[in-house]
Write a structure and sequence with these properties.
Length: 105
């Protein structure tokens, strides 16, 4: 025997829905939610690929500017990256940097 559920919502009266119908509706909602997750996952992956490409281009431009004797601080400011990233790029390109300070005792 199927149980029926009817209710009055702010949008008006809804006819009785069987539990079988509720199961189908739940599956449809789950499928829609999973499609949304997949769509957003693909978007995130694409944005990460674009970010990686932009970062690679930026690091190449920074290295070229420093090799042309552009002021390092101004180059870092324009690149909008932190000092650790900036100097990691320079060291990776074989550009000489100041030795790191010894930690305070």
């Amino acid at each position: 025997m199927r149980k029926h559920c009817a209710y009055l919502s702010p949008l008006g009266y809804h006819p009785p829905v069987t539990h079988d119908d509720q199961y189908v509706l739940k599956e449809e909602r789950q499928a829609a939610a999973m499609r949304k997750v997949a769509e957003l996952g693909e978007l995130r992956a694409e944005l990460r690929r674009q970010t990686k490409a932009a970062q690679d281009a930026l690091s190449a431009a920074v290295i070229e500017a420093v090799r042309l004797d552009a002021p390092r601080r101004r180059t870092q400011d324009l690149a909008q990256v932190g000092a650790p990233t900036f100097y990691k790029w320079l060291e990776g390109a074989g550009i000489e940097t100041r030795p790191k300070k010894r930690p305070a005792r």
